Hints:
The protein is an all-beta fold.
Amino acid sequence: MKATLIAKAKEVNDDGSIVEVVIWELPEPTPPSTHKYKYRLFYGQNGKCRIRYDNERTKRRS
């Protein structure tokens, strides 16, 4: 079973700032999480990232 997109929203505000939220439901939890959701939040302004938050696991380089 593939991940299911639950929500995806992007808003460009009058001041030029951008807010984006994406939420996926996974078939099963990805350790160490106990929930089945993958999510990310982005907020940027004036061409710069101000906040970036997600629950993506850190990728290791080989």
